[in-house]
Amino acid sequence: MSDIVTQAVLLAGGRGTRLGELARELPKPALDVGGEPFVMHMVWNLARHGIRDVVVSCGHLADRLEQAMRSRPVPGTRVRFVREPSALGTGGGLRNCLPLLQESFFVLNADSLFDVNYPDLALHANGGAALALRRVPDVARFGAVQTRHGKVVSFAEKGRSGSGWINGGVYVLNREIVEALPDGPASLEHDLFPALAARSRLGAVPYDGFFIDIGIPEELERARQDVPAWRRKPALFLDRDGVLNVDHGYVHSREQWEWCRDAREAVKYANDRGMLVVVVTNQSGIGRGYYGLEEFQALMAWVNRELLRHGAHFDAVYHCPHHPSEAREEYLRRCSCRKPEPGMLLRAMEEWNIDPLHSAMIGDSPKDVQAAKRAGLSRAALYDPESQSLLDSVREVLA
Ligand SMILES: [Mg+2]
């Protein structure tokens, strides 16, 4: 299986001519949507999927774009800018980024936002090329895509109307394909993709996540309503030990990590539904001195990489290292985060703008259920790994 993909290129060199006055001073991706540059919603969405190395291909009004993006950084994400010397089109702009590119990477049009399970798309590329398809009520503005057996067969010209599948502007490509592009201006849509499709080398995967293209003024207006609404999300909160992994007691190394039945599939199920997946775990083993914070964090980073290999991910992990009576001095306290207290859930709800009414919690202890109730979640379930798979439990609680 190919390795996980953690890099994305944002194609932001376009001139935005259809937006007229609206994009005269600022490039389209930098236009304000809900208090931040449109493109930063994309960077945020990539980051939560573990994609934290971002390369921006820019040209038109590059200074303004860089200034806007640097003013609203996403913590933990590195953003680098590559300017094209002259207008090179999407293909030429991407080729221009090659010195910074890894073996495989995502490529996204920076003036459209399509919320897909990116790690899942990467699995479908098999180290080659794949694009994300979106069904729309009218393909006229975009051009329809025809597929067969999971591959693109052809691209229709714009103009034909009616519902159908379109290119959603999210791709996975490898270096080799980009290296083969000619020097100078080139278009991914007109030059590269039809050529790959003709050789059955372009995978196509349908998704139904949030989609908006701000290329025309009405859609920019709609984005200003709909993007902030999309940012408010339901979450699936999961306890860790006894839910994701078999509870062997104070698990803190890879050797001790044993997945519960269908746990990775359960996480992916929630990811695919557009929910955040947030782990909330009491880790008094840290307070007791059985293992360190660094070991806990290293283990969770490894667990998340294992998830990414299965097209799944955690959006966030919250832990409580405290204990009221059995901990070293610095961790000895009656805190508000140790479950059954709801502190970890409340903090996550605040930091991630979570909608509690459509969220749920699964734990293997009554303390987990209590914490969920105190946090105002509408649904919580007790999980018994002996009698059920985690996937079945998640399906049940989200039904
Ligand atoms: Mg537990």
Features of this protein?
399 residues; Spore Coat Polysaccharide Biosynthesis Protein SpsA, Chain A; 2 domains; 7-stranded mixed β-sheet; 13 helices; 31% helix; elongated; binds magnesium ion
Structure description:
- Belongs to the GmhB family.
- GO terms for molecular function: metal ion binding; phosphatase activity.
- Keywords: Carbohydrate metabolism, Cytoplasm, Hydrolase, Metal-binding.
- This is D,D-heptose 1,7-bisphosphate phosphatase.
- The chain is of the alpha/beta class and 399 residues long.
- The chain has 2 domains: 7-231, Spore Coat Polysaccharide Biosynthesis Protein SpsA, Chain A (Alpha-Beta Complex), CATH 3.90.550.10; 235-398, HAD superfamily/HAD-like (Rossmann fold), CATH 3.40.50.1000.
- 31% of the residues lie in helices and 23% in strands.
- It has 13 helices and 18 strands.
- It has helices at 38-48, 62-70, 89-96, 118-125, 175-179, 188-198, 217-231, 263-272, 284-287, 293-308, 343-352, 366-374, 390-398; strands at 7-12, 32-33, 36-37, 53-58, 78-83, 104-109, 112-114, 129-136, 145-148, 151-155, 164-174, 202-207, 211-213, 235-238, 276-282, 316-320, 360-363, 379-382.
- The chain has a 7-stranded mixed beta sheet, with helices on both faces.
- The longest helix has 16 residues, at 293-308.
- Magnesium ion is lined by residues 239, 241-243, 247, 363-365.
